Each structure stands twice: as structure tokens, then as C-alpha cells.
From TrEMBL:
Domain NAD-dependent epimerase/dehydratase: 5-241
Name of the protein this chain belongs to: UDP-glucose 4-epimerase
Superkingdom assignment: Bacteria
Any Pfam family: Epimerase
Family under the similarity heading: Belongs to the NAD(P)-dependent epimerase/dehydratase family.
UniProt xrefs under InterPro entries: Epimerase_deHydtase, NAD(P)-bd_dom_sf
PANTHER family, per database record: DTDP-D-GLUCOSE 4,6-DEHYDRATASE-RELATED
Residues spanning the signal sequence: none
Length: 314
């Protein structure tokens, strides 16, 4: 039986990926230290559907406190989804935590995978490494992070490439473009917009709302992980977008349609670190491992709205 490690297994992408792996017959070791960046009870709910699965176990510890070399030694795949997220919180005194969770933890995993039997390691990178984009952006674009968070994700990605070049580690980096859907973090815009609209509370839009984002549905992001595991080229980075690029105010209109309620919008000044636009060119992932997003933004918002209604009993 194939064995996989999923770091951040109680998080948004990690829990959904874990569920997919279990359904496909993998034995999964999840690692999650349940950081307090948002309500831990939500993370615990994320793993409820598979917590007692016979082929799943979870280790509730910080990656930096584990004997990763021993843990990795009998596993075939490593999906490194763990990290401290959030652009706005990465400024100031909190930056050290981002360095620890996003850079140092990745280096520790790479050291553990070095010389092991692991066939493929997948690193969850981010579109934040690019900064703002003025058109469809391919992987050849020179990275220019616009936030400390983006700097840490790019640094970890560079480490992955260095370990591939020097030690032949079979690592693939996936640059996620704004993943959304059920289990999305409560601090992310779509989650907040949907919840506040359902509760008839104001939603906050930073700036004039002219920002655009390339949104990727969670099941498409998970499918990208599975395909990259099987066919991704070691040492490469791939954009994982959803082909659902839209302006923020247009997104709110779709949320109104999905929720059946009118949003109450409040505009506040733009925030440092927020890129104006993101736009993924996913042709490299299409070519190398057949990635093709199938979920529309409208369908994804419907599923996420249903999830949020259940989560908060709305």
C-alpha cells in the first residue's frame, strides 16, 4: 500500500487532499500543529470525516519538533501543505513566525527527504511570489513578491530547487492562485464575504474593489497535487490557477446570487502587500501533467456557500 505524508493535514488544502488520498487507497500520516492563526475548532472539523479512518493517523506537533528523517523513511510521497498563511499579518513582529513555519520547516523536510525512498515531494507554493500581474503570467516571469509572506514562500521554493539541483530530491512546487471552496480559511476574502452576506453584516473591501483574482476551486487544486505526484517534473514549478479570473465587485455579485441576499459593502483604504491583479498561465501544468480545472467559479461558490451555512448554522 502506498504511503503519503501530508503536512498541514487539518488545514484547507491539506484536509481535502488527505481525504482524496484515503479514498484512493493510500495510507496517510497527517502532521498539523494546529497553529492559532484561526479557530482550532474549524481545523478539527476539517478532519472529522476521516479522523477515524483505518489508514489515517495524525501527529499534532510542530514540524520543527519531529524526527522527520525517521518519519519520512517508510513513506513514498510527501505533500508539504503546511505553512503560515496571510499577506497582511506577515508584516512587523510576526515575520519571524513566517520564517520559521514557511522557510525553516521546509528546509527540515527537505533534509529528511534527502537520501530517502520518497518518490515525489510536492511543495505548496503561492502566486504571492509574483507580486502583481498585468496579464496571463507564466512561470518564467521574474518573481517580485509584494509582501513578506510572498518572500517566505519564494525562499522555500528556492530551497526546494536547490535540494533538487544538489541532491536530486524529486520535488515539485505548485504555485496556487487563490484557492477557494469548502473548508477555506475564515480569514480569506471569499469566506468572509459569504458569511457576512448570509448574516446580513457589512463586508469590507480594501480600496475601490478594482482588484482581480484568478480563483481556483479546491478540488481542482487537489487534482493538481495528484497529477503532479504522478507526472510532474522534478525540480520544476507550476502555476495552478482556475481560469476564473474576476474583479472583486463582480465576485460579490456572484456571492449575492449564491446566497440569495444583498451584500452590504464598506470600502476602506488599500492594504500593504495586496497585489492588484493575479492571472495564471497554466499551460505548463496542462502540458506536463494534464492539469485542467473543471469547476466554474459559480459552481464553487455554491458549494462553499452551502458549507458555510452548515459550519455556522446559518
Amino acid at each position: 500500500m502506498k504511503k503519503a505524508i501530508v503536512t498541514g493535514s487539518a488545514g484547507f488544502v491539506g484536509s481535502t487532499l488527505t481525504e482524496r488520498l484515503l479514498k484512493e487507497g493510500y495510507t496517510v500520516t497527517g502532521i498539523d500543529c494546529l497553529t492559532d492563526n484561526y479557530d482550532k475548532s474549524i481545523k478539527l472539523k476539517n478532519i472529522t470525516p476521516f479522523k477515524h479512518h483505518k489508514n489515517f493517523k495524525i501527529i499534532n506537533k510542530n514540524l520543527l519538533e519531529l524526527d522527520l528523517k525517521t518519519l519520512v523513511s517508510d513513506h513514498d510521497y510527501v505533500f508539504h501543505q503546511a505553512g503560515l498563511p496571510g499577506v497582511r499579518k506577515s508584516w512587523g513582529e510576526d515575520f519571524l513566525q513566517y520564517v520559521s513555519h514557511n522557510i525553516y520547516a521546509t528546509q527540515k523536510i527537505l533534509e529528511a527527504v534527502k537520501g530517502s525512498r520518497v518518490k515525489k515531494m510536492i511543495y505548496a507554493s503561492s502566486s504571492s511570489i509574483y507580486g502583481s500581474m498585468n496579464g496571463p503570467t507564466g512561470e518564467e516571469k521574474l518573481p517580485a513578491p509584494f509582501s513578506p509572506y510572498g518572500v517566505t514562500k519564494l525562499s522555500a521554493e528556492h530551497l526546494c530547487h536547490l535540494y533538487y539541483q544538489n541532491y536530486g530530491i524529486p520535488v515539485v512546487s505548485l504555485r496556487y492562485f487563490t484557492v477557494f471552496g469548502p473548508r477555506q480559511r475564515p480569514d480569506m476574502a471569499i469566506h468572509q464575504f459569504i458569511r457576512n452576506t448570509l448574516e446580513e453584516k457589512p463586508i469590507t473591501v480594501y480600496g475601490e474593489g478594482k482588484q482581480t483574482r484568478d480563483f481556483t476551486y479546491i478540488k481542482d487544486a487537489v487534482d493538481a497535487n495528484m497529477r503532479a505526484m504522478a507526472f510532474g517534473k522534478s525540480g520544476e514549478a507550476y502555476n495552478i490557477g482556475g481560469g476564473s479570473r474576476i474583479g472583486l465587485m463582480d465576485l460579490i455579485t456572484l456571492i449575492e446570487s449564491a446566497s440569495g441576499k444583498k451584500a452590504k459593502v464598506i470600502h476602506t483604504p488599500a492594504q500593504p502587500g495586496d497585489a492588484a491583479h493575479t492571472w495564471a498561465d497554466i499551460s505548463k501544468a496542462e502540458k506536463d501533467f494534464g492539469y485542467c480545472p473543471v469547476y466554474s467559479l459559480e459552481k464553487g461558490l455554491y458549494h462553499q456557500t452551502s458549507h458555510i451555512r452548515a459550519l455556522y448554522n446559518l
